[in-house]
Amino acid sequence: MSQQNKQASAEPVVVKTLSPIQRKVRKLKRDPKQFVVDSKAYVGTRQAAYIAWAKLGSFALVLIASILVVAYYTIVASPRYATSTQFVVKEAGSNEAALMGFTALGTTSSSMRDALIIKEYVESREMAVALNNAIGLKAHYQNDEWDALSGLSKGATVEDYLEFYQKHISVRHDELSDIVHIEVQAFTPEYSLLLGQTLLEKSELFINALGDKMAKEQLSYAQKEVERLYTNMKNQQQQLVNFQNNNELYNPEQQGSAMLTAISNLQANIITAEAKLKEMVAVMRDDAAEVKSQRILIKSLKQQLTEEQSKLTSDDQKSLNQITANFQEIKLNTELATGLYQAGLSSMEVVRADAYRKLKHLLIVQHPAQPETDQYPRRIYSIFTWFVSLLLVYLLARLIWVIVKEHKE
After folding, report:
1. pLDDT at residue 58 above 70?
2. Peptide bond preceding 377: is omega within 30 degrees of 0, i.e. cis?
């Protein structure tokens, strides 16, 4: 055993050497922070930053911010696709002529008003909510595939969603042609087309409902007025029939004419009978039978005349003149109600035609089409804008610093 131990101790001790990569891995496990600090990349970056700060000073911040902006717009920023559509709103019976010169100042045509109304509606909260309910627009903006600065945050409120929606839609009205230009943005070309088509459908439904609602309200009012006039006319006619039945007279005016004729005949007969009585008294005795008979005849005619006159005129409500007056009043009211009803029917037809002329239609000039390339963000324009903005902020800050420094001295 001692000999074996001596042989083992005589053998050289082998020390296992680690490769550079293995040493770096072991160092990373032991102290990650020190590993990063000792790395060549960190040391080189730190030296470059020191050199840049020594040569450029605080302007290096502008360059660093510009580099970050360039990196964002070239690598990170999610592309947005735009779909455009154009349409014009017209009334069915529109015959507006173009106004030229000073005549056009201060005037607003019906087409222009409708175009401005649809412009406000497209940009409104109601349209944003309608699009979200129809195609899930808010969820599309909140998709995790888009970068955080381009998309809509998960906890966005309705107001945040509306503001985001309004920033990604452009509505322009051409005052010369009354054409409304709409451009919508989405993160995929397919969804951009779907958004443009849905917005166009919602706009058409809104403008059609707007004109249809006005037409229905006008027609409803006209129909209610005609129904009221018809009811009034029927009531007046029934009142006339009841009056005729109660007085057992179809036409008191004709009855009065007949009574006047009868009274005239009685008066003529009395005059004739009295003249004959004078002739008879001249040749006969007063107590003669013929004379007595003639006097009785005259008396009967006068009594009959008095009765007929009392029927025609008296203070009694059943006198013919009072009945005729009441009849004429009821008849006049009936004729007036009939005339108003006929006028109401004519007016309703005029309102119906006018309501049809005021129906609004959305005439599509350009249908939405699926885009092939992204149009937003405008990378070069955005980078240049950011650089100019940062440069102006830097110069303004330097100017303020110099002024403050001079005042301190």
Report:
1. no
2. yes
